[in-house]
Amino acid sequence: MLENALKNRNSHIDYKEKARALRERLSVLQLKIRDARLPVIIVFEGWGASGKGSMIAEVIKYLDPRFFKVSSTMPASEEERRYPMMKRFWDSIPEYGKISVLDRSWYRELALARMEEGISKDEYKRRISSVGGFERMLSDDGYLIIKFFLHISKSEQKKRFDKLRDNEETDWRYSETDKKRHKHYDEYYDAFDDMLERTDLPCSPWNVIDTEDKAYSRFKVLEIITDKINEALEGKAPKAQSAVEYPLLCMSRLGDIPLSGKIVSPEEYPERLKAAQKELSKLHNRLYMKKIPMLICFEGWDAAGKGGAIKRIASALDPRGYEAVPVSAPDKTELNHHYLWRFWKHVPKSGHIAIFDRTWYGRVMVEKIEGFTPVSRCNEAFAEINEFERELTDSGAIVLKFWLQIDKDEQLRRFTDRQNTPEKQWKITDEDWRNREKWELYEKAVDEMIEKTSTAYAPWTVVEANDKLYARLKVLETVIAAIKDRTE
Amino acid sequence: MLENALKNRNSHIDYKEKARALRERLSVLQLKIRDARLPVIIVFEGWGASGKGSMIAEVIKYLDPRFFKVSSTMPASEEERRYPMMKRFWDSIPEYGKISVLDRSWYRELALARMEEGISKDEYKRRISSVGGFERMLSDDGYLIIKFFLHISKSEQKKRFDKLRDNEETDWRYSETDKKRHKHYDEYYDAFDDMLERTDLPCSPWNVIDTEDKAYSRFKVLEIITDKINEALEGKAPKAQSAVEYPLLCMSRLGDIPLSGKIVSPEEYPERLKAAQKELSKLHNRLYMKKIPMLICFEGWDAAGKGGAIKRIASALDPRGYEAVPVSAPDKTELNHHYLWRFWKHVPKSGHIAIFDRTWYGRVMVEKIEGFTPVSRCNEAFAEINEFERELTDSGAIVLKFWLQIDKDEQLRRFTDRQNTPEKQWKITDEDWRNREKWELYEKAVDEMIEKTSTAYAPWTVVEANDKLYARLKVLETVIAAIKDRTE
Questions:
Q1: Cα–Cα distance for residue pair A338/A89, rounded to 1 Å
Q2: How confident is the model at residue B66 (pLDDT cuts 50, 70, 90)?
Q3: Which of B172, B285, B331 is opposite residue A332, by nearest beta carbon?
Q4: Percent of chain B residues topping a pLDDT of 70
């Protein structure tokens, strides 16, 4: 792609003047972006000394600083490396209606990492696919991603580095890394070119701009930005390619799962619980040593016993090595971001466990049934969630998902018990009763959810939970088996 | 304090059984904590092998994992060191109604840093005072802070280390650092003792527990925790000492500040603006080189021109080196924390600038006047904010605060203009008109705010802003002077 970099072709045009007009246009568009709640991500990648910094300054010159943010992407810190690669980028996606301008981005983990950090060919490909998933997912949610690669020739780069070095005020900006990269310009050229080819997606294509002519390249960047924003505001933004489809496991419908007979006698329970917890405790240590992160996710009917099951897991774990994440309705800030944003924040680091009490699956249950999100958008979540979980498992995590299944009579018994027991009354709300009235709707939604998101890498386990003791042991034993499977 | 560590005194008591009863009590208290929205921070510090990990496991054994969180404090990363020391601890304070258990805490930046990182005596004292301010501020807001130091003798430590080392499963936990610290036990003893003395605050006293007898020490820790929580729930928690009083600058009342005559002609403006921006741009580079962080804070009447002034600063800065922070009403999550929590998140790192469009001073203006927070609590904010800003400047930051002052007639002119200009209508809301009706109340509040929070280290600058051009230049020139003052 680099050989086709956009270059100045007409020397009779005053590009400086045209750029000024576009900057004014952009400052008007910014208000429209805010009103339309359109989130915009503008990525600047490119060669050293290709002028990323001054280009960014040009772009934002007339913008209201309250509605955009510029971030520089540094190499990941040691701590950041303990998380899936995309976590830090997910954490900092812009709110709806705001612009985020990136001086380098997730792309520094591709070509540069390949050249300088010795990542394997496979790892490189995996990263390409992570980036693709990330950009597709954001695009599907209406994020506009505009990507620029600023290109200069080897001789032009040399000229610019020389100029930097010869000036006392700027010589500190010319680093050993720059020197090394310049020396191996041709190899970097191939690496960049390969990266650009592989990540030139329909929803987020690359714009390669030759910056040898400053005025023209600035004009061109501004033109592309304003054009793309206009397109997006008119609803003509390019759509993401359909996500990869992952093979699904064959699952029973909730109604076909027998609950009776799945019991554990109160006599044998304490012993079995103790044994399971002891084993889990040992295995947690092994997870830690092997630096494997794990997500244990709970969904289930109200009063199905999620809290009790979580407690039995948690109390077997080293408290410094896990986090319990209670999920409730999203707040204002969370609603201003992609719905997975708030969950990415709690993705565990290597060797740690995150236990989710309710999860991202709210998207295809409560949000869909109560109409908080349009049904068509909710339905896209099946593929998105499969991709999200794939990203987690690809980066080494174990992902377990439990659906705690009780029947309607058992729920009534528990609701009534909660209502009649003073210490338990806080656990039961009017909303629980209202949800109960929609049992059939929810059952249908859950069936669909389990059918469409039981992948081999992140399977659902339906837990027969009419008997609490049985359910707790089944959960514990499933967790134990999963860890053993990965660490033995 | 170490020599008075609490020890087992009665060998006839079954402390194990008593501890079990207390744990049950604690699990009931947890629900009361949630209902009373009481935030609890439990700190565990102590010697290596003093049993912090297993003590924490004991404490949380019966707790519901959805209402507490255990965190281990690691040495600050390189990135974290670019911020004021307390930032990472502020970022992770618990929500109201939740418990946070810390395996090491901000105290690792005191005695350990003094022993191992060669911080100066002055820096050590500064850190002591930072920690004091932090704990006082949280206590004032109703946070309950319970601090434990787990103590063991040198011989007991040796015994425990030997046991760790001799077991294949645990020998990896005995590190070189442990070895070194054990060797210099006596020096560490003095350092810990000094730290404990200096940070034994009325609002957050130390509990030093000798853990040689496991059963007794566990019982004792649980007893202290349940007692303290009970006290706090009954409103009998110890109060913070009054904060340090900082000398204040003498400031004029808003009504006494002449606005007329403070004008800049449209002819001279462009030239002066350009010159100022050019200088600021150069100085930003100098800030960056000298690793000085800076906060530029804007408050002022609606339509006083905050946005315009911010834009003139921002467009002179390297976009990678600043963040504009628009502040609006706090969301649900933010309301569940100390009011300064959301601002700590945006405290800039070394060499960076944060520009706040409205600030923490909302506490003593809108929150007070609209009754969102009890007046008595709002009034405590003057001292708290002085302390907060002191913490920032002590850690090297420049803090500038601008009040943009216009008169009531000028505001009416601007409101009317906004209403009559389609592109500006979004800037004017019903709330603006309602606030205008309370002009006199606000003026009184602002006078008090400026009087009580104009410290020498973080002074207010009242900007005569009836003339926008004058105001923008005065702001720019004040910023320039402040940076020069620190970097020349």
A1: 13
A2: confident
A3: B331
A4: 99
Q: What predicted TM-score, i.e. pTM, was given to this entire model?
A: 0.86
Answer whether residue B367 shows pLDDT above 90.
yes
Nearest to A72 among B72, B289, B320 (CB): B320
Give which of B56, B60, B62, B70 to mutate to test A binding, by max A Cβ within 10 Å. B70
B86–chain A nearest CA distance, Å: 19
d(CA A44, CA A170): 21
Residue A205, token pair as written in the block: 């294509």
CA atoms within 13 A on the CB side of A485: 12
B4 has pLDDT over 90: no
- Cα B322 from chain centre: 20
B61 touches chain A (CB under 8 A): yes
Give the number of A-B residue pairs with CB atoms closer than 8 Å: 90
- Among A84-88, A235-239, B111-115, the minimum mean pLDDT is found in A235-239
Minimum distance, in Å, between the CA of residue B240 and any CA atom of chain A:
30
Range B2-233 classified under CATH 3.20.20.70: no
CB contacts of A53 in chain B (<8 Å) are: 318-320
CA–CA separation, B369 and B382 (whole Å) = 15
Measured in angstroms, the CA of A377 and the nearest CA of chain B are apart by 25
Residue found by looking up tokens 């915009």 in the block: A40
Quick one: which of A32, A113, A115, A119 has its CA closest to A73? A113
State the greatest distance between any 2 C-alpha atoms of chain A, in Å, as a whole number. 91
**Closest Cβ–Cβ partner in A53, A65, A103 for B355:** A65
Which one is the CATH code of B254-487: 3.40.50.10740, 3.40.50.300, 3.40.50.720, 3.40.640.10? Answer: 3.40.50.300
| CB B43, CB B147: distance < 8 Å | yes
The answer on pLDDT for A242 being more than 90 is: no
| A347 DSSP assignment | P
Q: Note whether B466 and B259 are within 8 A (CB).
A: yes
ipTM for this prediction: 0.76
| Rounded Cα gap, residues A49 and A170, in angstroms | 12
Higher pLDDT, A412 or B168: A412
Which chain B residues are Cβ-neighbours of A56 within 8 angstroms?
319-320
Residues in chain B within 8 Å Cβ distance of A169: 285
Residue of A nearest to B32 (CA): A423
Residue B304 identity:
A
Rounded CA gap, B77 and B71, in Å? Answer: 16
- Residue A258 distance to chain B (closest CA, Å): 30
Interval B373-412: pLDDT, tens:
999 999 999 999 999 999 999 999 999 999 999 999 999 9
Core vs surface per residue A347-379: b (16+ CB within 10 A) or e: bbbbbbbbbbbbbbbbbbbbbbbeeebeeebbb
Would you say residue A467 has pLDDT above 80?
A: yes
Give the side-chain half-sphere CA count within 13 A for B9: 6
Cα–Cα distance for residue pair B53/B60, rounded to 1 Å: 11
A69 contacts on B by Cβ (under 8 Å): 323-324
Instruction: Write out the H or E segment, with its range, that includes residue B52.
Output: helix B52-60
* Short-list B206, B194, B198, B104, CA closest to B146: B206
- Rounded to a whole number of angstroms, the distance from the CA of A83 to the nearest CA of chain B is 15
Fold matches, B2-233 and B254-487: yes
Q: Does the distance separating the beta carbons of B426 and A320 come in below 8 Å?
A: no
| CB–CB contact A331 B326 (8 Å) | no
Mean pLDDT of chain B: 93
- Whole-number pLDDT of residue B424: 82
Section A213-221 average pLDDT: 94
- The residue extents of the domains of chain B are 2-233, 254-487
CB contact under 8 A, B71 and A311: no
CB pair distance less than 8 Å for A35 and B426: yes
